[in-house]
Amino acid sequence: MCDEHALFFYRELSPSFRCVYGLSRMWPGVDGLMCGDLSVALLSKSVHDFTQLDDAWFTATRVDAFRLGFETCLAARLSHLKWAESEEPNAQAWPMSVDGVRALFADYLRLIDCHLVALKDDASLLRLLECCLAYSKPPWVLSDPPGWPFLAEQARRLRLKLE
Predict the structure, then answer these.
(1) Percent helix, percent strand, percent coil in the chain, to nearest 5
(2) How far apart are CA 11 and CA 66, in angstroms?
(3) Do residues 153 and 126 lie in contact, with contact meaning Cβ atoms separated by under 8 Å?
(4) Which of 29, 60, 71, 152 is the most buried (most CB within 10 A)?
(5) What is the maximum span of the chain, computed from C-alpha positions, in angstroms?
(6) Which residues pair with 34 in a beta bridge?
(7) Rounded to an integer, what distance in angstroms lies between the CA atom of residue 79 and that of residue 58?
(8) What are phi and psi for residue 136, nearest 5 degrees?
(9) What pLDDT digit, counting tens, does each position of 62-103 carry?
(10) What gap in Å lies between CA 85 and CA 163, rounded to an integer?
(11) pTM for the full model?
(12) Residue 22 buriedness (CB in 10 A; 0-12 / 13-18 / 19+)
């Protein structure tokens, strides 16, 4: 069972991009320590600018001051990205110990942050969205991140904006 978003962090990447991180407790590990996961939502000013009220990804009902003027364009769980690296029956979680948090942070830097720091403009966002659309998850990973059903339409609209 997952205790969704036990702790939130916010990060401004640039005037055009922001991130919301959610640290979640998941289940007790074999050593009795609680295990955790990290979810990341990438917010874009440009995606917000072309979002219509009837778009499925529109989040006006849950806007806080940090998200105002921005819209989610990509969401991922670190556990699912890690899960894709090796065949396991379940997604990975990290023990909430000093060593476990260090391992979680190292995996975050390797699997997520490297893409976030590369975001400089709408063209780099489009490249990231297209990379995600081209991704084919391994058969043992049972679900996609929540934002992925909307990526194709968001990428299409962003491509039109850049033309």
Answers:
(1) 40, 25, 35
(2) 9
(3) no
(4) 71
(5) 55
(6) 28
(7) 25
(8) -120, 110
(9) 567 778 888 888 888 888 888 888 888 877 788 888 898 899
(10) 36
(11) 0.84
(12) middle
